[in-house]
Amino acid sequence: MTLRLGYGTNGLTDLRLDDALGLLADLGYDGVGLTLDHMHLDPLAPDLAARTRQVARTLTGLGLGVTVETGARYVLDPRRKHGPSLLDPDPDARAARTGLLVRAVEVATDLGAHAVHCFSGVTPPDTSTDTAWQRLAQALDPVLEASDRAGVPLAVEPEPGHLLATLAGFHHLRTLLGDPGPLGLTLDIGHCQCLEPASPVDCVKEAGPWLRHVQIEDMRRGAHEHLPFGDGEIDFPPVLEALASTGYSGLTVVELPRHSHAGPELARSSIDFLRRATGATNGAGPC
């Protein structure tokens, strides 16, 4: 069984990007989930194309694959977490988020990334569910067009508390959009444990045909808190075995965005844990 393991830069924000990438390569990771943010390849700062080319050279030199992630908390608005969203009542605000995602597709193309990740956002107050879904579908249209031109899939993540919170929500969006080819899924294994009605193993099996990006961490039922491996409730060997059986060939990225203070040590312990868990599925003993 072979999975390509990565680690998210949103869990390494105390490191310079070059230092973070060097660390991951030294630890034996196959790639990186690169969150576009002010400390790591700022998508709004000058000379983005030149800076992106430099990061691409670094990734190539280190032998790292990459997924572009767009979950930076304050990259567009320094006072509103994840604001504005694709559901914002203000059309210009929604357009700002759409524009950021289109830019992310361009960056992903230049980096040779295998997917661009995004999520819907929280439904604003006094907004009906139908209106929110319509806004989401309309706001994603230009992003999907850019993805189609670039040949880089857009991988939408079900996020607890958001309009699109579950696998069922992802399939609803697919139907609204007419099941466009560039639209895929980011599956967060911890989120499956947190709130999906099915087990993480069954979620992986159900999601298989649409998987374009995978995030992984431990979590407990009913609590949306990203935890280091072993601190939650997930039995990982069968989850990893199910993931490998889908034929998914992208990165499986450790997602610990609130643990940057211990990022280097958690990057080391996480890959050790996942290697043991993978070995356990192949009869190499318990993890």
Provide structural commentary.
With about 290 residues, the protein is α/β, with parallel strands linked by helices. It has helices at about 15-25, 50-60, 90-110, 130-150, 165-175, 190-195, 200-205, 235-245, 265-280, and strands at about 5-10, 30-35, 65-70, 115-120, 155, 185-190, 210-215, 220, 225, 250-255. An 8-stranded parallel beta sheet has the order 3-2-1-10-7-6-5-4. Strands 8-9 form a two-stranded antiparallel sheet. Strand 2 (about 30-35), helix 2 (about 50-60) and strand 3 form a beta-alpha-beta unit. Helix 1 (about 15-25) runs parallel beside helix 2, helix 1 (about 15-25) runs parallel beside helix 9 and helix 7 (about 200-205) packs parallel to helix 8. It is globular.
What's a concise summary of this model?
It is built from 9 helices and 10 strands. The protein is an alpha/beta fold and 287 residues long. Residues 282-287 have low confidence and may be disordered.
